[in-house]
Amino acid sequence: MPRPPRGEGPGGESKGIPWRLVLWAAIALYALAFLLLNDDKQTVDFVFFTVDTRLPWLILLSMALGAALAIIGPRWWRSRKQR
Predict the structure, then answer these.
(1) What is the DSSP string of 32-55?
(2) pTM above 0.70?
(3) Judgement on whether residues 33 and 46 belong to the same structural domain of the protein
(4) Pairing of strands 41-45, 50-54
(5) Is 14 helix (H, G, I), strand (E, B) or coil?
């Protein structure tokens, strides 16, 4: 007799708590609280212009720039070493 998939009882009914759903809901609530509680304005001075932005957007921009540098940097460095 085949076994039911993990997390399901013999009749196909789900048993227990859906931990993935609970985890994603907790992450979403934490992100929402972070956005609502960090509404301070910050000034960012770029070389040619200045921007006033809220703190969460500044953090997201910093993370995106860091990720872009982490992806592009090693590729650029490898291409320079191969020349």
Answers:
(1) HHHHHH---EEEEE-SS-EEEEEH
(2) no
(3) no
(4) antiparallel
(5) strand
Residues 44 and 31 in one domain: no
Closest by Cα among 42, 43, 37, 36 to 55: 42
pLDDT at 71: 92
Residue 1: in which H helix or E strand, if any?
none
51 - beta bridge partners? 44
Q: What is the pLDDT of residue 5?
A: 60
pLDDT, tens digit, 9 for 90 and up, residues 29-66: 998 888 788 888 888 888 888 989 888 888 888 889 89
User: Distance of CA 20 to CAs 13, 17, 23, Å?
Assistant: 17, 9, 5
- Residues of the domain holding 55: 40-83
Could you give phi then psi for residue 41, rounded to 5 degrees?
-90, 140
